[in-house]
Amino acid sequence: MGEQDLSALDRAVQSYAHWWREAGLHTATDPVAHGWRQAPAAPFWQKQSGAEAVATAPASLPPARLLEAPAATPTVLVSMPETLPAFLDWLAQDKNQPEAAWDGALILPPALAQARLMVIVEMPAMHASDAESLLAPDQRRFIDAMLASLGVAPADRAIVSLAARRPPGGLLDEETLGRLTTRMTHYLRLARPRAAIILGDRTSRALIGAQWSPNGERLHKINQGGGILHAVALAGPELLMSRPVAKANSWQALRRLHGIVTA
Asked: Which of 124, 254, 260, 114 is CA-nearest to residue 188?
């Protein structure tokens, strides 16, 4: 009973947040003055202000790349480790990650180098507790069946999400999405998968950038700093499962990956 109540509350919060977002209200109303030119206001579903949510990583980290905030906000540099194990330790321990203020299981991407295929989603499903539950059970079965048509078994693929926890209300504001996208791009450069399938228009637009098209069936080549990641951008799992036309279009895109993941 308690789990059902929690699910209903989560849906209500998401619906409420979407309503205000559509109405144009993205931030909390606060009688205290904000330094609008110095830092962005906190989205109303986050506890921290923009200035507090972005900070430098501990000085003890190994040599690292720099994570740069989106150009529309003041530039804040955050160091990211240059080895896969150190990067995953940083994600797990750094208190300045966006997910640090959220509830739920922390689901890190796998310490898996050169995987045949990575499936990338925006955030974990409701009640997700590990990598295999990042997608809802029916969605995971659908994706695995789709990949089986390419000759890719569940053991040959990994599922990762931009957010390591599900955000409150299931919403990511644009600033946080930008930070998580830069972080995921760095992870992909370290992990170097052979190919990727990106699920959801918002996730695809964030990772692919100007090349992305909502109706595209092309094979994207994403520069990974010395290497190329081949990727296809598909609709979200729910849309693929409910619309035959979207499913047919996805098959055309997936065929372009076949030779890469089976080579």
From this structure: 114
